[in-house]
Automatic annotation (TrEMBL):
Organism from which the protein derives: Prochlorococcus marinus (strain MIT 9211)
Protein name: Pyrroline-5-carboxylate reductase
Localization in the cell: Cytoplasm
MF-aspect GO terms: pyrroline-5-carboxylate reductase activity
Domain of life: Bacteria
NADP keyword on record: yes
Chain segments annotated as coiled-coil in the UniProt record: none
Length: 276
C-alpha cells in the first residue's frame, strides 16, 4: 500500500505545511512518508507527530518508495535539486502507470526544469509562506502540463485549509515569492526593531515584543478589511507637528521605502538565479 503523500525534504517548510494538516486530520501520520538528509532535523515544527511518521534518510534505498506515492511534495533547497535528479534518474518507472503529481515548493525552479527532471510526473509549482503553520498562509500555484482535475483538487486540498490560494501565471511566481514567502522575515525584522525602539524608550522587553506584534497585526487587519490605501492610513495617524510625522521624517531620511523596494526586487532576482 503506497503512502498517500511522499515528502522529499521534510525540513522547515514541509513541516510547516504538514503539521496543521496532521492537526486537522487531513492526513494521518501513517499515510506520510518523509525523506530527509539528516533525521535530527525533523522535530522543529512537527514535535510529537515526528514519532508517528515514516521518515527515512535520503541515502537509504528504501527512500525510493517515496516516488510511488500518488502525491509528492518536493521541498529540498534549490541547491539540493541535483542530488534528487541523480536519484530520480535511477528509478525504474513502471510502463503505463498513472503519473503522480509532484508539487515543488523550490524557490525559482521553473516548470520547464521540473518537467525535464521528472518526465514521469505531472508537476505543479507552489509558493507557500511560513504562516501556514497557523493556517494564515498564502500560496501561489502554477499548474504544469497534464495535471488532472483530481490532482488539482488534491493539491488545493493541501493548501486551502492552511492558506489563501491564488493561481498565478508562472512568470509572476518569483515576485510573489519575494513579497509573500520572504516577507515574513522582513516583517519579523521590523517587529523586532520596533520592540527595540520601545525598550529604548523605556518599556520592558516582553511588553514591547507583545505590543509590537499587536500593532503590526492590528494595522494589517485594518488595511485588509477597510481597503484603505496605505497612504490614507498614514495620513489618518500623522497629526500636524505631532509624534508620528516626527518619526516618519526620520524613516524617510533613513531610506526605509527604497530599502524595502530594493529588498523585494533583490529577492525576486535571487529566486530567478536559484532556479537556474
Ligand atoms: N522556509 C520558507 O519560508 C520557504 C521555503 N521555500 C522553499 O522550500 C524549500 C525548503 O526550504 P526549507 O524548508 O526552509 O529548507 P530546509 O533546509 O529546512 O529543508 C530542506 C530539507 O531537505 C532535506 N534534504 C536535503 N537533501 C535531501 C535529499 N537528497 N533527499 C531528501 N531530503 C533532502 C534536508 O535534510 C532538509 O530537511 C526550499 O526550496 C525553499 O526555496 C518556499 C517558500 C517559503
Ligand atoms: O529564503 C529562501 O530562499 C526561502 C524561499 C522563500 C523563503 N525562504
Amino acid at each position: 500500500m503506497p503512502f498517500s503523500i511522499g515528502i522529499i525534504g521534510l525540513g522547515r517548510m514541509a513541516q510547516a505545511i504538514l503539521t496543521p494538516l496532521l492537526e486537522r486530520g487531513d492526513f494521518k501520520p501513517d499515510e506520510v512518508l518523509g525523506v530527509v538528509g539528516q533525521r535530527s532535523s525533523v522535530k522543529k515544527v512537527l514535535g510529537e507527530f515526528s514519532q508517528d511518521l515514516s521518515i527515512v534518510s535520503s541515502d537509504n534505498p528504501v527512500s525510493l518508495e517515496v516516488w510511488n506515492s500518488p502525491i509528492q511534495l518536493l521541498a529540498v533547497k534549490p541547491q539540493q535539486l541535483n542530488d534528487i535528479k541523480e536519484q530520480v534518474s535511477q528509478l525504474e518507472i513502471v510502463p503505463d502507470r498513472p503519473k503522480p503529481v509532484l508539487i515543488s515548493i523550490l524557490a525559482g525552479v521553473n516548470l520547464k526544469r521540473l518537467q525535464s527532471i521528472f518526465p514521469a510526473h505531472n508537476c505543479v509549482r507552489a509558493v507557500p509562506n511560513i504562516p501556514v503553520i497557523v493556517r494564515s498562509g498564502l500560496t501561489g500555484l502554477s499548474w504544469g502540463a497534464g495535471v488532472t482535475t483530481d490532482q488539482r483538487l488534491s493539491v488545493e486540498a493541501i493548501f486551502k485549509p492552511i492558506s489563501e490560494v491564488l493561481e498565478l501565471p508562472e512568470k509572476q511566481l518569483d515576485a510573489f515569492l519575494a513579497l509573500t514567502s520572504s516577507g515574513p522575515a522582513y516583517v519579523a525584522v521590523i517587529a523586532e526593531a520596533l520592540a527595540d525602539g520601545a525598550v529604548a524608550a523605556g518599556l520592558p522587553r516582553s511588553l514591547a515584543n507583545d505590543l509590537s506584534n499587536m500593532t503590526l497585526a492590528g494595522s494589517a487587519k485594518l488595511l485588509k478589511e477597510s481597503n484603505l490605501h496605505p497612504g490614507e492610513l498614514k495620513d489618518m495617524v500623522a497629526s500636524p507637528a505631532g509624534t508620528t510625522i516626527t518619526a516618519l521624517r526620520h524613516l524617510e531620511m533613513a531610506g526605509i521605502r527604497s530599502a524595502l523596494i530594493e529588498a523585494v526586487v533583490l529577492a525576486a532576482e535571487r529566486s530567478r538565479e536559484l532556479g537556474c
